[in-house]
C-alpha cells in the first residue's frame, strides 16, 4: 500500500457521490453473474468434486429429547466401501460450535457439539457420521447405525416455565432487557391501554440449494481447504482454524455460486467442521451435501416468538409507552448468532414511531426443536407484525382511522436524525434520515387507498369478504465496523476488485462493479469482482444484514477514487498536462475540455506504473489501491406495505389480490436489482404470513420435512405487486447515500396481511398469530 | 460397490450418445451430474416438488430426481447445457432471463428454462396467465417470479419474430 493509502486508512471524510443517476450507478444494467448461471456453468456446492473424494452422511437423532446411551456402528463399519464411522467419542477433542454475534455472556454451556454427546436435544441432531466411497453407500451405511436413546419429556413451549437444560443451567440462559423513559408513569396516566398476545410461527429461509461442504487437505502445502462456503468466510475460517488447532493461514474457504442465503446458509455448522476434520484425518477429500429432508431439520429455523405487549396512549392515539414481554423459541442449542435475534427484536420493535417510554424483556429460551437463528429481516418481521397489530388495536380502541393513528405517531423529517436511548447489535439506534409521512402519502396515493376503501365497501355489500391492510416498517442495514476493498488495473485495462464481501446470489458482483466503474470511469463489464475467498484478502465480513452495498460499496467507491487519482497523476506526467485538466471516460484518459477525444487507455497508464517502469523507481509499483470504509452506526431504511385480501368464506383461504411495497433506500445502485430484492423478499414474507411453518407433534417429531408439508409460495400464490423504490432520504453515513435493500420486502408482510384480514373479517384484532392458516380463518368466520 | 447390480445404459444427451455402466438405482439426475459432469441440472429437493432438476426427455419435461437413469435407455435427454446453440449463443429464453433479471441465485434457473422450452414449443404465443400456470410447479426462492414471467413473454416474442 502506498504512503497515501496508509494515511487514508484513518477514516478521512470521503467525497460523496453526486445525487441522481450516473453513467453506471442508478442504471438498470444486466448482471455480470448471469451468463454462467443461465448456461448451467455455475459452481454450486454440490458441483464441487475432487479426485478420491469420500462422501459423508450424517446419522441424525430420531428423538427430540433423550439420553444417548450408546450407538452401535458395527454393521455400518462392516459394509464394503465404508472407510470410517465416527460418534462423539471420536471427536471429543473438538470444542462445540462457538458464537460470534452476541454480547450476552454465559451462553457457552448451550453451544452445540459437532456430534451429540450424552444428550440429544432435537430430532435431526447429528449423532454420528459415516464416510464411504459414494453418497449412496454412505446412506446405506448410515441406515445401519443404531442409536440407543432413552427418551425424556421434550420442552416444546417457550412460554412454559423454564426447565433444566443441564444441572445448574436452565432452558432460559438469558433475558434481554432494554428500557428507557418512565414506563410506569405513562401507563398510570394513559388515556387508554391496549394489550395483545401475539405469536409468530416457526419458519425460515429454506434456500433452494441445500447446504454443502467439501474439504480437502493438501499435505504438500499443509493447507486445508473448505469449499461450499458462504456468508461469513473469514470468521468461519478463523474459527475452523482455532477449533482444529491450525494457524488461520493454513485454512482457506472458498465460496462458489450460492443458491440463496437468507440468513441460514454460511453460518458455521457441525457438518462444516466434520468434513474438515475428516479431510485431515482420512487424508482424502470429503464431500457432504445436505438432502432436503435434512435441511428441514438441520439448518437454522427462525422467527418463533410469542409477545405479550401493552401500549399506553393519550386521547389522540399518540403512543406514551410500550411494555413488551416476549418469549423466543430458540430450539435445542444456541448457535453462532447467540441471542442476536432477541436483541434485534427488542431494539427494533419501536419502528418508525415516536415512543417516549419503552420497556422490553426478551426471554431467550431453549426447546427441543431445531436450533434457530436469523432469517431475512430477523427480529423485524416479527416485531413489525407485533407493533403494527398494536397500532391497529389503538385505532380500533379510539375509533380512529388506521392510517391516521400511524400518521400521528410517525417520526417526522424535522426530528431526523432521531436518536433513541436504545441499542441493538452493540450500536446506538439512531434513525439517520427519512421522510416517513412523505413515503406513507406516496404509497397510499399510488395504491389508490381512498378509492379502494369505497370499492371494498361496495364489494362487501355484494357479499364478498375483502379488506385492505397496512404495515409501516423500519429496517436496519450497513452494520459496521469496517470493510476493505482492493482495486487493481492491469495492462489491458481490466480491473480486479478484491473484496472481503460474499455473495449469496443477490448480485454483489454487479453492484460493486457498477460503483467501481462509476468512480473510475470505465465499463462495469471490465471489472472482475473477487469475493468469498479467504486466500485473496486478509479480512472480510461477508454478506449479511443488508450490509454489502453500504460497507463494501463505500469501500469500493473510495478505492476506485484513489485509483483514479493515481491514474490521472501518472497520465498528467506522460501527457504534459495538469491532472486537474484530465478525466477518465470509457476507460481512456481524456482532457476535460475535450472528453470525446481519448488520449490514452487506462491499461497504458497501468503499464507505465508497472515494476519495470522507470517512473516507478523508488515507489510502490502498480495502478492499485486498497481503501476501507468504517461505520459506527447502522443506516435505517424504511417503508410501507399495503395489501388487499379476499377471503374464501367456504375454506377460510386468504388470497392476496394485490400488494405494494414502498421502500426508501437512499440510492438504488441498480434499480432492477433492488426491485428483485423487494419482490423476492415480499414473496418470502408472504410465505411466513400465510403458508410456511415448521410444525411439531406433541413428542417433538418434526412434521414439516418435505416441500409437500412446508409450503413455499409458488407463482400461483403471488399477487400483482407494485414497487416504489424511493430515494428521498439518502443516508448521511456513507459516501453513496445508500441504505440496504435486502430485507424491506420481507419486513412488513405479516403486518400488512394481518391488518387486511382483520379488515375483511370486519373484526379488528382477529389475527393474533402467523401464519394465518385457512383453518384459523375458517374458525373466525364461524364465531 | 461390487455387490450392487449394475447395467450399461446408453441414451442421447444434448445430441450426443452417452454410455455409462452404473448401479441400477442411480437416478438420472445423479448420472447426468456425476457420471457425465453435467452439473447444470440441480437437485433442490429430490422428491419431485421443486422442479430445479427438470430436463427434457424426448422434448417433454421430466424430473431427473424422480427417474432412474436406466429408464432413459434409448431416449434423448436435453439439459440446460444443451440450450445455447452450437456457436454458444444463448437461447432466447436464457437471454431474456438475463435481460429481465429473471434469476438471482440461479439455482432454480436450469429447471425453469427446460420447463419453459417445452412450454414455448407447445404454446409459442402465450398469455401471462398461461406462463404463470406453466411454471407454477417450479419453486424459486429469490425472484418473486414476476420477472421470470416478463422474461418468458419477451423470449416468446423474440422466438416468434425469429
Number of strands of chain A: 31
Order of helices and strands of chain B: EEHEEEHHHH
- Multimerization state: heterodimer
Strand percentage of chain B lies at 15-25%
Q: What's the Cα radius of gyration of chain A?
A: 27 Å
Strand order of the largest sheet of chain B: 2-1-5-3-4
- The total count of helices of chain A amounts to 20
Write a structural description.
The complex is a heterodimer of chains A (783) and B (162). A seven-stranded mixed β-sheet of chain A has the order 3-5-1-14-11-12-13, with helices on both faces. Chain A has 783 residues and is an alpha+beta fold. Chain A folds into three domains: 3-30 and 480-630, Aldehyde oxidase/xanthine dehydrogenase, molybdopterin binding domain (Aldehyde Oxidoreductase, domain 4, 2-Layer Sandwich), CATH 3.30.365; 45-152 and 223-257 and 265-289, Aldehyde Oxidoreductase, domain 3 (Alpha-Beta Complex); 305-478 and 633-781, Aldehyde oxidase/xanthine dehydrogenase, molybdopterin binding domain (Aldehyde Oxidoreductase, domain 4). The longest helix of chain A is centred in the C-terminal third of the chain and has 28 residues, at 548-575. Helices cover 28% and strands 25% of the residues of chain A. Chain A has 20 helices and 31 strands. Chain B is of the alpha+beta class. Chain B folds into two domains: 6-82, Beta-grasp domain (Ubiquitin-like (UB roll), Roll); 92-161, DNA polymerase, domain 1. Chain B has helices spanning 28-35, 92-99, 109-122, 128-134, 146-161; strands at residues 6-13, 16-23, 54-57, 60-63, 76-78. Chain B has a five-stranded mixed β-sheet with strand order 2-1-5-3-4, with helices on both faces. In chain B, helix 2 (92-99) crosses helix 5 (146-161). The model of chain B has no long low-confidence stretch (mean pLDDT 97).
Amino acid at each position: 500500500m502506498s504512503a497515501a493509502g496508509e494515511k487514508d486508512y484513518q477514516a478521512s471524510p470521503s467525497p460523496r457521490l453526486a445525487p441522481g443517476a450516473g453513467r453506471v450507478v442508478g442504471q438498470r444494467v444486466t448482471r455480470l453473474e448471469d451468463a454462467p448461471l443461465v448456461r448451467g456453468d455455475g459452481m454450486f456446492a454440490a458441483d464441487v468434486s475432487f479426485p478420491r473424494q469420500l462422501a459423508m452422511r450424517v446419522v441424525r437423532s430420531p428423538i427430540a429429547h433423550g439420553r444417548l446411551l450408546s450407538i452401535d456402528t458395527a454393521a455400518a463399519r462392516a459394509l464394503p466401501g465404508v472407510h470410517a464411522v465416527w460418534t462423539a467419542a471420536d471427536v471429543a477433542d473438538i470444542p462445540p460450535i462457538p458464537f460470534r454475534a452476541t454480547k450476552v455472556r454465559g451462553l457457552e454451556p448451550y453451544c452445540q457439539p459437532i456430534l451429540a454427546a450424552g444428550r440429544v436435544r432435537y430430532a435431526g441432531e447429528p449423532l454420528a457420521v459415516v464416510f464411504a466411497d459414494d453418497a449412496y453407500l454412505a446412506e446405506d451405511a448410515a441406515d445401519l447405525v443404531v442409536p440407543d436413546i432413552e427418551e425424556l419429556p421434550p420442552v416444546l413451549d417457550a412460554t412454559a416455565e423454564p426447565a433444566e437444560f443441564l444441572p445448574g443451567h436452565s432452558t432460559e440462559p438469558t433475558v434481554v432487557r432494554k428500557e428507557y423513559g418512565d414506563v410506569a408513569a405513562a401507563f398510570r396516566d394513559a388515556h387508554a391501554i391496549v394489550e395483545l398476545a401475539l405469536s409468530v410461527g416457526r419458519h425460515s429461509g429454506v434456500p433452494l440449494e441445500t447446504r454443502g461442504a467439501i474439504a480437502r487437505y493438501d499435505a504438500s502445502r499443509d493447507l486445508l481447504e473448505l469449499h461450499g462456503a458462504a456468508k461469513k468466510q473469514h470468521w468461519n475460517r478463523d474459527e475452523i482454524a482455532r477449533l482444529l488447532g491450525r494457524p488461520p493461514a493454513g485454512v482457506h474457504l472458498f465460496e462458489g455460486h450460492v443458491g440463496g442465503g437468507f440468513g441460514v446458509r454460511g453460518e458455521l455448522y457441525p457438518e462444516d467442521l466434520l468434513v474438515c476434520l475428516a479431510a485431515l484425518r482420512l487424508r482424502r477429500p470429503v464431500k457432504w451435501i445436505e438432502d432436503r429432508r435434512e435441511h428441514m431439520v438441520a439448518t437454522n429455523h427462525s422467527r418463533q416468538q410469542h409477545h405479550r405487549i401493552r401500549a399506553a396512549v393519550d386521547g389522540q392515539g399518540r403512543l406514551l409507552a410500550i411494555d413488551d414481554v416476549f418469549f423466543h423459541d430458540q430450539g435445542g442449542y444456541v448457535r453462532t448468532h447467540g441471542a442476536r435475534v432477541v436483541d434485534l427484536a427488542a431494539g427494533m420493535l419501536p419502528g418508525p414511531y415516536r415512543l417516549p417510554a419503552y420497556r422490553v424483556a426478551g426471554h431467550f429460551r431453549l426447546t427441543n426443536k431445531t436450533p434457530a437463528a436469523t432469517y431475512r429481516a430477523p427480529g423485524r418481521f416479527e416485531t413489525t407484525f407485533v407493533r403494527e397489530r398494536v397500532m391497529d388495536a389503538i385505532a380500533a380502541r379510539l375509533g380512529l382511522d388506521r392510517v391516521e393513528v400511524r400518521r400521528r405517531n410517525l417520526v417526522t423529517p424535522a426530528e431526523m436524525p432521531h436518536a433513541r436511548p436504545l441499542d441493538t447489535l452493540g450500536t446506538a439506534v439512531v434513525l439517520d434520515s427519512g421522510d416517513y409521512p412523505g413515503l406513507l402519502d406516496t404509497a397510499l396515493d399510488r395504491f389508490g387507498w381512498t378509492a379502494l376503501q369505497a370499492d371494498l365497501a361496495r364489494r362487501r355489500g355484494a357479499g364478498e369478504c375483502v379488506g385492505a391492510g397496512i404495515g409501516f416498517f423500519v429496517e436496519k442495514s450497513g452494520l459496521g465496523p469496517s470493510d476493505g476493498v482492493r482495486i487493481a488495473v492491469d495492462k489491458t485495462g481490466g480491473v480486479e476488485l478484491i473484496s472481503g464481501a460474499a455473495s449469496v446470489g443477490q448480485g454483489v458482483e454487479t453492484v460493486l462493479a457498477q460503483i467501481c466503474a462509476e468512480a473510475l470511469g470505465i465499463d462495469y463489464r471490465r471489472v472482475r469482482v473477487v469475493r468469498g475467498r479467504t486466500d485473496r484478502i486478509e479480512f472480510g465480513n461477508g454478506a449479511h444484514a443488508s450490509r454489502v452495498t453500504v460497507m463494501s460499496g463505500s469501500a469500493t467507491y473510495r478505492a476506485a477514487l484513489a485509483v483514479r487519482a493515481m491514474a490521472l497523476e501518472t497520465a498528467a506526467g506522460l501527457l504534459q498536462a495538469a491532472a486537474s485538466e484530465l478525466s477518465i471516460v470509457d476507460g481512456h484518459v481524456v482532457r476535460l475540455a475535450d472528453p470525446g477525444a481519448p488520449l490514452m487507455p487506462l491499461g497504458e497508464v497501468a503499464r507505465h506504473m508497472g515494476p519495470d517502469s522507470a517512473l516507478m523507481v523508488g515507489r510502490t509499483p502498480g495502478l492499485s489501491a486498497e481503501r476501507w470504509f468504517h461505520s459506527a452506526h447502522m443506516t435505517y431504511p424504511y417503508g410501507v406495505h399495503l395489501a388487499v385480501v379476499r377471503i374464501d368464506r367456504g375454506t377460510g383461504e386468504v388470497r392476496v389480490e394485490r400488494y405494494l411495497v414502498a421502500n426508501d433506500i437512499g440510492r438504488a445502485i441498480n434499480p432492477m436489482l433492488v426491485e428483485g430484492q423487494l419482490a423476492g423478499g415480499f414473496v418470502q414474507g408472504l410465505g411466513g404470513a400465510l403458508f410456511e411453518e415448521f410444525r411439531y407433534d406433541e413428542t417433538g417429531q418434526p412434521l414439516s420435512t418435505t416441500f409437500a408439508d412446508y409450503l413455499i409460495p409458488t407463482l400461483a400464490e403471488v399477487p400483482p405487486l407494485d414497487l416504489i423504490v424511493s430515494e428521498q432520504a439518502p443516508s448521511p453515513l456513507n459516501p453513496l447515500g445508500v441504505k440496504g435493500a435486502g430485507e424491506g420486502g420481507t419486513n412488513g408482510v405479516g403486518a400488512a396481511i394481518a391488518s387486511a384480514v382483520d379488515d375483511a373479517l370486519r373484526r379488528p384484532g382477529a389475527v393474533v398469530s402467523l401464519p394465518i392458516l385457512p383453518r384459523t380463518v375458517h374458525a373466525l368466520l364461524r364465531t | 460397490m461390487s455387490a450392487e447390480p449394475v447395467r450399461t445404459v446408453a441414451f442421447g444427451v444434448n445430441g450426443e450418445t452417452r454410455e455409462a455402466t452404473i448401479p441400477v438405482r442411480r437416478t438420472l439426475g445423479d448420472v447426468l451430474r456425476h457420471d457425465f459432469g453435467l452439473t447444470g441440472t440441480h437437485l433442490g429437493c429430490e422428491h419431485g416438488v421443486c422442479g430445479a432438476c427438470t430436463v427434457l426427455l424426448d422434448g417433454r419435461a421430466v424430473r431427473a430426481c424422480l427417474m432412474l437413469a436406466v429408464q432413459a435407455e434409448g431416449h434423448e435427454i436435453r439439459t440446460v447445457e444443451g440450450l445455447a446453440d452450437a456457436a454458444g449463443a444463448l437461447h432466447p429464453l436464457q437471454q431474456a432471463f438475463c435481460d429481465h433479471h429473471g434469476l438471482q441465485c440461479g439455482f432454480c434457473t436450469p429447471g425453469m428454462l427446460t420447463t419453459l422450452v417445452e412450454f414455448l414449443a407447445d404454446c409459442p404465443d402465450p398469455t401471462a396467465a398461461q406462463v404463470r400456470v406453466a411454471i407454477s410447479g417450479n419453486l424459486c426462492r429469490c425472484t418473486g417470479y414476476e420477472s421470470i414471467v416478463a422474461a418468458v413473454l419477451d423470449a416468446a416474442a423474440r422466438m416468434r419474430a425469429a
